[in-house]
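pipeline/complex-builder :: batch 7 item 3
reading input block
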Amino acid sequence: MNPTLVSLALIYGQLSLLAFGGGNTILPDMQRQVVEVQQWMSAREFAALYALAQAAPGPNMIVCSLIGWRVAGLSGAVVAMLGICVPSGILTYCVSAAWLRFRDAQWRIIVQAAITPVTAGLVMAAAVILCQTTAIGVPYVMLSALTAGLALGTKLHPLIPLGAAATLGALGVFG
Amino acid sequence: MQPAAGQRRIALGELFGGFFYIGVCGFGGVLPWARRSIVELRGWLSPGEFNDLLALCQFLPGPNVINMSVALGSRFRGVPGIIACFIGLMAAPLAIIIALGMLYTQLEDDPVVRRAFAALAAAASGMVLATALKIAAPLRARPLDVGIAALSFTAIAVLRLPLLGTMAVLAPAAVLLVWLTRR
């Protein structure tokens, strides 16, 4: 058994069950595991792969497959994808039949109300760590701020600022 | 979950097609496309049923739309339905991301591509920042929520603690605090 594939399965299998409130909450831990613990790539490279995955269609957790592919080829992509999907998928399968019974239960509403601010802090942590990684100069900081402002203030399709940033970057506008 | 008695059966190919559409169209977030495919185009669920399913998928850990493919597939066709929905959802994005990865690996040392990716990554970070601010905004009114969010933020972004340990401590603590204040 390829030890890299085992590591990928363990890392993503664990993250699958920790990913409350969508995929962005697990980005910092994914970066910690992939960059610091396993030392498969640099933080800069991790941010570039994350950005590349944003330019592709599909669930945003497709970034896991991209990292798996980069680390261990096609089998790595498949193992990472199954790792992030299967544990939570099995949980969903088991729980969905009982959902009607506990949907309106007081304990469920309290658990949801407690998890929501935890995940809000985690997504903010993901944003700050990603911004720190990609802020390699003043123009890049301004670019991040401008993109955030556009996403907050307008209904612009996300591919438009991403495409414009890549084009202007290729032309050397940001140095 | 087995298909309920009297519930309409949806062909496996149709389930595959519905989720394939979500997979290829879902740029920058698949959720709006999931609603469009499941509620508007195919009428598999009413808007209320869709919101209820979404609430389940958001309550459980894991990628929301992938959980949705599991819950819907099992509701309509059992385990074969899950496989049809999941492969439909993931096949095209997986092929596309591997193709993009191969292209990137070929070109990453080119200075023009490096500059494009530095800018793309900065813009993508800005997008995540916007998402984070949108999620955080409604919490402002509740000091307890602000405190809990500040704790999870500090644990991960400042102290750089592992997520597993952070959640093992913080999630039960948050549940306890919310329970105490609501009693």
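note: The CA atoms of residues 73 and 175 of chain A lie 33 Å apart.
queue -> next item
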